[in-house]
Write a structure and sequence with these properties.
With about 475 residues, the chain is α+β, with helices and mostly antiparallel strands. The protein contains 15 helices and 19 strands. The protein is globular, with a radius of gyration of 24 Å. The structure holds zinc ion (ZN).
Length: about 475
């Protein structure tokens, strides 16, 4: 790994980030969206303590009791220089301890790997952001830096990033921002040996799919459970509707980002060319193994039936049933197009089913011809000298969308070590035995340090091969 000459500083910062990460995991800010979830106040206090005595402006906001987000603002020395926000969340999704080989909230550190819920999504990144922010607090750069550790990302952000941008927008008044996902190293296998070659690309998330929610109101005819023949059972109709929707093909769409990803991802040439054509892409999915779901999601508007309710008495044929659909839209897909897709899938069931639109949030996108993206590209090369930044879309949502909607160019950025593949990173998010390796935290710190120095305006500091100022703290 590159970074020679800054290794002392990076190691020390890495040690700090690992310690912070373990504390954040142990705080167990589990957010399942129910009342009393999250209680992110604990991690806000941990981070407040980390910045104590550094003379920085720390603001805590608490839209509901216990749902605390922390915002640290570090002014730059030049008011005309660009400003950057590093936005991490502190909440995590639940974990079923029985299915883990490590206690999900013990933050075990074994052989250079930290185990625990949130290790990858995204407490390791939040910890790395904090460490970099404290370095900047010690030695300010030309531009100002904001570090935000926000609540509630895992159940939609209404009590975290979205709340801040709505009610306290001055806290996140910046020119650009970084947040989660991205950082996956992409490498092709060597044609002769089959061994993985050098890392040629690292993903940077520049876009997120849109999220639409639809509720199907299924109408049957109530009757006695003892005489089903000829009945119009809403549960049976709902089951048919779900099968049709799940089996309904949506058209593959190749956007601007897709060819750049395919070129960097290391597919063998014949497969790569089939993945580039809508007509052949769907058939190629079955050859992609654990990457198939991701590739499908990045090239299609998808519909997942997620909640089903019907009937309330054992002996009554239900006259009504409800089905909730989680729809993830590609850029440019309108709410009307979502309705049309569902009605088309329902076919002759449509007269018995009303499709109700419950929410529509469009896809979000940040351009890649920006100074911050250039800084990301150069800083990736600090870690992987032969790698370029590969802009990708994320199939799921993050706080990045609120920032983009507020007009702030936002990228999902960190840098994972060579042990990670795209499929493995996807599997580990919200999965059992979530973990992160110390090497990935170190790579992220090196890259983030490069980004803040390049973007906030202290290029000389990047070239100077001296330990970072925090080395003795
Ligand atoms: Zn996350």
């Amino acid at each position: 790994m590159a970074g020679a000459g800054r290794e002392n500083g990076a190691m020390d910062a890495t040690t700090q980030a690992v310690a912070l990460l373990r504390e954040l995991i142990r705080n167990a800010c589990v957010n399942d969206g129910s009342p009393g979830s999250g209680r992110e106040e604990r991690s806000a206090r941990t981070l407040e303590g980390y910045f104590a005595a550094f003379g920085v402006d720390v603001e805590l906001v608490e839209p509901e009791p216990g749902r605390v987000s922390l915002v640290v603002s570090i002014p730059g020395t030049d008011p005309s220089a660009p400003t950057l926000a590093l936005v991490g969340h502190t909440d995590v999704v639940p974990a079923v301890a029985d299915a883990w080989t490590h206690d999900p909230f013990a933050a075990d550190l074994v052989d250079g790997v930290i185990w625990g819920r949130g290790a990858l999504d995204m407490l390791s990144l939040t910890a790395a952001y904090a460490v970099i922010a404290r370095e900047v607090a010690e030695t300010p750069l030309s531009g100002g830096l904001v570090f935000a550790a926000v609540a509630d990302e895992e159940s939609g952000g209404a009590l975290g990033a979205e709340w801040i941008l709505k009610h306290r927008p001055e806290l996140l008044r910046v020119d650009a921002a970084l947040t989660e996902s991205g950082g996956v190293p992409l490498r092709a296998a060597d044609a002769s040996t089959g061994e993985p070659g050098p890392v040629r690309g690292v993903t940077v998330t520049v876009a997120e799919k849109g999220i639409s929610t639809r509720r199907l109101k299924v109408r049957g005819v109530p009757g006695h459970g003892s005489t089903p023949y000829g009945s119009v059972n809403a549960a049976v109709l709902a089951a048919r509707a779900i099968e049709r929707i799940a089996a309904h093909p949506s058209r593959a769409v190749i956007d601007d980002l897709w060819p750049r990803y395919v070129a960097a991802a290391g597919f063998e040439p014949d497969l790569a060319s089939r993945l580039m054509t809508p007509a052949t892409l769907d058939e190629a999915l079955s050859e992609l193994g654990p990457l198939a779901g991701l590739v499908h999601a990045l090239t299609h508007t998808t519909v997942s039936p997620t909640i089903v309710h019907g009937g309330d008495a054992r002996n009554v044929i239900p006259g009504a049933a409800d089905v909730v659909l989680d729809v993830r839209t590609l850029p440019g897909v309108t709410p009307q197009a979502v309705d049309a897709l569902i009605i088309d899938a329902l076919g002759d069931l449509a007269p018995r089913i009303t499709v109700i639109g419950e929410a529509d949030a469009p896809a979000s996108y940040s351009a890649t011809d920006t100074p911050l993206f250039e800084a990301l590209r150069a800083s990736i090369a600090d870690v992987y000298p032969e790698a370029d930044a590969v802009p990708v879309m994320a199939p799921g949502g993050s706080d990045g969308r609120f920032l983009r909607w507020a007009g702030i160019p936002t990228y999902g950025f960190g840098v994972l070590s060579e042990r990670w593949t795209h499929a493995e990173a996807r599997r580990a998010m919200h999965g059992n035995d979530e973990h992160i390796d110390v090497a990935s935290i170190e790579a992220t710190i090196i890259a983030l340090r490069g980004v803040v120095h390049r973007y906030l305006g202290s290029p000389a500091a990047v070239d100077e091969a001296k330990p970072a100022p925090s080395a003795n703290v």
